[in-house]
């Protein structure tokens, strides 16, 4: 049946299966009724009421239902439902087409495997004695229904389909005939064009929103049946306990930042992902739609000087500068080398040997204030963060189970004022979590404000960082007057700046926070002044390499809600003196039960770069998987990080890691790979 012309490889999944959606839904409904669940069919929701920022009731055309939790499982209707409580859910109803052929298969041919041919954008599965065939068109089309929101759906649209669009389906139809020649002659029984809810990154949209008790479980991108019961389970756990019982960050609605409050941005990003759904996506691939959107004050300078930009949460960020490229001698093998640039190594070495200037303006930043601000932060942070004005603290915030919910720095800027800095992608998540804790712990008098866009941030790091700063400011920036983790207001040239002596690259230096209107001038002044000291403008790819060598953790990489500070090597950031903070009891109960530890794995060939999720074995036993990886240009080795059973955590122990079918020896390292004593950062 299949024409194998051009096929060089395929994968058979014997566990693939099919399920009747109607029967599945009825089976689940039957089980729910037995558990006491009530269903109200033919009932329209008119309003969702809130009290003090939390759901309080649902008003329907048949009466009002008092409740403190609403789970929005509206599929493509989810955005309209969410607007009732002022929440934006980034789901776009996309026109998705497929056809069902007339019966032509041998009736004895049952349970044929599903067939997906990504190069031809098509998929097949058996439908009785015919085939169901569909695909993902390059000329996608949202179902806008003529509305400006792009996700409004007419109130009377129930159980209906959209008009057939054969012209848009032509490429899919032609491709199906190439792979399954019978499609040229078999008749079409049904051609279906139905709207389906898609998200901007083709992942589910789950979790609690900024409105207390208002959850979402929607945006299944044509894969809802596959998630079905599993999604119900994890969302039910989330509702019951107040947090997910596993790491669901890639599906968490809080991954969508402020940019996704724009319907047009959401539409462009959703269309791009729909149209490239079947493409081969190499690690490090960047989205191209709706760019640029959010930019640093120094963005024009970066563009003029040959920056290659990446994008995160709508922010344009420098990956590296094209003119720093040299040769490909260090280019990684395989997929890791697809988007690699030699400029990263050059910028890495600049930060290690002279100085690097990094634009980190995209970092999420929050202002926290009020008489009880310190009390609140000490209650939600694992570390002691009230240390006096001018002190910065690295800390985690924990789940009730002791997992790592947030990873950020807190700086005390006044008696009752604090400043939080976290990763670019985590702003909505972290601020949302803090506001939830504020509401639930009774700290409504504490002010929490997102000041990300109001402040630019530049990092100056390297052995010559102090020499450069001394040229720029009249303030004393010696080690004695400005020690590590101190934060002071200084002037650089004519510009008022908050300087915090901290590092994410393992070198002496400072982060400078400045009102955005001063940003361009500050960048130019630092860069020009630093030229006599070998200062180089550097990008985020260099930061990644530098921090891997130093062993600095990244939330979503080496740490998440399923890891705790003990096993992640972050016990130093947990206060042993505080008797009460969120997750404390669970965390200390877990300490004597620890079974694994995060370690570094090094590979002698610096080009053999792990990307994450590669299996690790000792003998024939799989003992873990790589969490993150990259190149260590100062140590001339490839690096990976992984959690290993304690029995395997021995300095110098040998393990094997699989790279595309080849098992390669890696060496376990329990100590910091670069400057383990921290001499450079404290010099």
From TrEMBL:
Cellular component, GO annotation: mitochondrion
Residue ranges of every copy of the GCVT N-terminal domain listed in the record: 299-578
Domain Aminomethyltransferase C-terminal intervals: 596-675
A Pfam entry, by short name: GCV_T
Domain FAD dependent oxidoreductase central: 241-296
InterPro entries recorded: FAD-dep_OxRdtase, FAD/NAD-bd_sf, FAO_M, GcvT/YgfZ/DmdA, GcvT/YgfZ_C, GcvT_C, GCVT_N, TrmE/GcvT-like
Residue span, FAD dependent oxidoreductase domain: 5-238
Family: Belongs to the GcvT family.
Name used for this protein in its record: Unannotated protein
Species this protein is from: freshwater metagenome
